[in-house]
């Protein structure tokens, strides 16, 4: 499977790019915004293209041509305003979904946020961010694509353990970015994740087993 990785320069995206190289099960084409980011990835042995989530869906579709799956790991980041949250986390995700359909790509894995599906559980200070994730997920669920939506808890830079909790609803919790990336990789090969959305935190179950139990 050839995977089109959107957001390859982000913290989870960088981990994923490395994992795809190490794993060898899939190949990857990384999408980044800047030429210097593309050059850095290529120097590390990863195929990369430049395209912008604030550009057109057509440009994203062209960049994704020939791929078999899309992984959306992009995010506006904590240092930007809510205008960028709207443009990247919501509209950018919507464009990526449009682009996948236009490019004939059926498989789509989305990284969302813990409890994005439950408005009553949104963090008061981050409501615009959760709203963007909520509606991006809804667009994907209605798209007709073979989707998986992964909603991780608070993201940590601790080393991954390979052990998680995954379920339709989980209490507040955290998880290492390493384990989120490993879960994305495992989800691509696990049919039980097709058409499912789930919360993800640190836990006591090996990742592949947790996905089979969803």
From TrEMBL:
Gene3D superfamilies: NAD(P)-binding Rossmann-like Domain. Pfam families: NAD_binding_10. It comes from the Bacteria. This is Sugar epimerase. InterPro entries: NAD(P)-bd_dom (IPR016040), NAD(P)-bd_dom_sf (IPR036291). Residues 7-191 form the NAD(P)-binding domain. SUPFAM superfamilies: NAD(P)-binding Rossmann-fold domains.
């Amino acid at each position: 499977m050839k995977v089109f990785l959107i957001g390859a320069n982000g913290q989870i995206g960088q981990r994923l790019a490395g994992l795809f190289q190490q794993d060898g099960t899939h190949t990857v084409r990384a999408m980044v915004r800047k030429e210097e980011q593309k050059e850095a990835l290529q120097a590390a042995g990863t195929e990369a293209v430049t395209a912008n989530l604030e550009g057109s869906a057509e440009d994203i579709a062209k960049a994704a041509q020939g791929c078999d799956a899309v992984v959306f790991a992009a995010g506006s980041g904590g240092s930007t305003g809510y205008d960028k949250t709207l443009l990247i986390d919501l509209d950018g995700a919507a464009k990526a979904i449009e682009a996948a359909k236009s490019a004939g790509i059926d498989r789509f894995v989305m990284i969302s946020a813990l409890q994005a599906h439950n408005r009553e559980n949104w963090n008061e200070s981050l409501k615009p961010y959760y709203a963007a994730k909520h509606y991006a997920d809804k667009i994907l669920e209605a798209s007709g694509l073979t989707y998986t939506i992964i909603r991780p808890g608070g993201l940590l830079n601790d080393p991954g353990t390979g052990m998680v909790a995954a379920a339709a609803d989980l209490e507040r919790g955290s998880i290492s970015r390493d384990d989120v990336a490993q879960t994305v990789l495992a989800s691509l090969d696990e049919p039980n994740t097709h058409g499912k959305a789930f919360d993800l935190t640190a836990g006591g179950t090996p990742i592949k087993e947790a996905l089979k139990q969803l």
